[in-house]
Amino acid sequence: MGEDVKVTKAERDVEKGYPKAEFISKLRRLADAIESDRRFDIQIAGERIYVPTRAEFTIEHERSDDEEEVEFQIKWKRE
User: Fold this and answer.
1) 30, 37, 40, 65: most buried by Cβ count inside 10 Å?
2) CA separation, residue 57 to residues 5, 10, 71, 75 (Å)
3) Domain of life of the organism in this record (predicted)?
């Protein structure tokens, strides 16, 4: 009794495509949440994600021989 139990989430690396209209909707909700200093909630591949207001935002560009990629990234430490 009184033993501390720490539950950790399994590592996950998921990439999910969305139709253009749904992608735009998610971006608008994200922008509204950031602008209003509110937590952003999103469901990705069946899992609900809660992005805290303390998250950091970056934009990444990658290039290879035949492909280019722009990633809008949101990162935060779990508490």
Assistant:
1) 40
2) 32, 23, 11, 7
3) Bacteria
